[in-house]
Task: inverse folding
């Protein structure tokens, strides 16, 4: 089995968990701002989907992310999250955005399906040698990473991590977190 196929299977499982965890989430739950510095459910979900689109369609494929092309203005998010500052490497501060962004969950989930399909198409096109290609992630303070590292950490790991956060945030609000 090709390594890219293993990555695809891992991602499909992670996204199934994410989407099943999002089932039944209400608009109130999406926008509820938890105490402390945790981000709302909607911001977590949007971060996963927008991040996957940006990483796959923008960075790895070298094109425009869907949110900047065919889905511009239709993603279900009121505003895109801040971008990294090229003059100050590191991850941008999402906290302000996470608390003010408004989410149309039905639209965001429709956009997510398109992002997932584009990701599957990209993964189907990869050979094992493609996974070893080095990508400069210095703008985020990460140095050089392989395509495989980006896919496993930046897409699969990101989806699983935020699914856990979403599950917890649902539980704090009195709803069932994970669907199983």
Result:
């Amino acid at each position: 089995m090709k390594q890219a196929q293993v990555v695809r299977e891992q991602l499909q499982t992670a996204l199934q968990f994410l989407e099943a965890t999002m089932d039944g989430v209400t608009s109130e739950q999406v926008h509820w701002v938890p105490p402390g510095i945790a981000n709302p459910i909607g911001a977590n979900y949007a971060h996963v989907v927008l991040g996957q689109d940006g990483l796959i369609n923008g960075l790895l494929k070298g094109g425009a992310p869907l949110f900047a092309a065919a889905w511009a203005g239709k993603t279900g998010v009121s505003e895109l999250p801040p971008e990294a500052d090229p003059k100050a490497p590191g991850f941008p501060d999402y906290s302000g955005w996470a608390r003010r962004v408004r989410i149309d969950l039905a639209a965001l989930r429709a956009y997510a399906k398109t992002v997932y399909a584009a990701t599957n198409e990209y993964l189907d096109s990869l050979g094992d040698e493609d996974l070893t290609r080095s990508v400069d992630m210095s703008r985020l303070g990460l140095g050089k990473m392989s395509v495989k590292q980006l896919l496993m950490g930046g897409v699969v790991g990101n989806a699983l991590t935020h699914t856990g956060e979403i599950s917890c945030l649902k539980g704090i609000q009195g709803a069932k977190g994970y669907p199983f």
User: Anything to note?
Assistant: Residues 59 and 65 are 8 Å apart (CA to CA). Helices lie at 3-22, 27-31, 41-60, 95-100, 105-125, 147-172.
